[in-house]
């Protein structure tokens, strides 16, 4: 069969027209999604959709000599649709989900550190405990505000804090 018209008439008659069309235009249709650099699976989808559209509209083809152009345009539209859709998709790997939870060993280490810190803190005198709690939970407070809260002189806040931290450090290291 030489012309598209003959191929279309053969298809309408129920003979091998479809196979002849696919053989004739297969490489052309396949080249369109590949020219858009679609992944193999997406290009295969576009290829199949293009042939499906032709099967659905084959009886309405009025100018068989322009069938190649029609196939290229259809494949182009499908390729652009795939690109738009893929641009809105969020990749999600079902095999290796990204975990926001810490690893079990990290949890164990953190829990141990916290336990040792709190145990050591509880052995400090009342004034050091209060000062270090204020420093940890309200770092934005000025020395004047901390001094007022603890009932000590402003000039002694820094040196007292340093002594309390050094004592806490020794006690934490002693709990190892």
TrEMBL record:
<comment type="similarity">
    <text>Belongs to the sigma-70 factor family. ECF subfamily.</text>
</comment>
<dbReference type="GO" id="GO:0003677">
    <property type="term" value="F:DNA binding"/>
</dbReference>
<dbReference type="InterPro" id="IPR014284">
    <property type="entry name" value="RNA_pol_sigma-70_dom"/>
</dbReference>
<keyword id="KW-0804">Transcription</keyword>
<dbReference type="InterPro" id="IPR039425">
    <property type="entry name" value="RNA_pol_sigma-70-like"/>
</dbReference>
<protein>
    <submittedName>
        <fullName>RNA polymerase sigma factor, sigma-70 family</fullName>
    </submittedName>
</protein>
<dbReference type="InterPro" id="IPR013325">
    <property type="entry name" value="RNA_pol_sigma_r2"/>
</dbReference>
<dbReference type="GO" id="GO:0006352">
    <property type="term" value="P:DNA-templated transcription initiation"/>
</dbReference>
<keyword id="KW-0238">DNA-binding</keyword>
<dbReference type="Pfam" id="PF04542">
    <property type="entry name" value="Sigma70_r2"/>
</dbReference>
<dbReference type="InterPro" id="IPR007627">
    <property type="entry name" value="RNA_pol_sigma70_r2"/>
</dbReference>
<keyword id="KW-0805">Transcription regulation</keyword>
<dbReference type="InterPro" id="IPR013324">
    <property type="entry name" value="RNA_pol_sigma_r3/r4-like"/>
</dbReference>
<dbReference type="InterPro" id="IPR036388">
    <property type="entry name" value="WH-like_DNA-bd_sf"/>
</dbReference>
<keyword id="KW-0731">Sigma factor</keyword>
<dbReference type="GO" id="GO:0016987">
    <property type="term" value="F:sigma factor activity"/>
</dbReference>
<feature type="domain" description="RNA polymerase sigma-70 region 2">
    <location>
        <begin position="21"/>
        <end position="88"/>
    </location>
</feature>
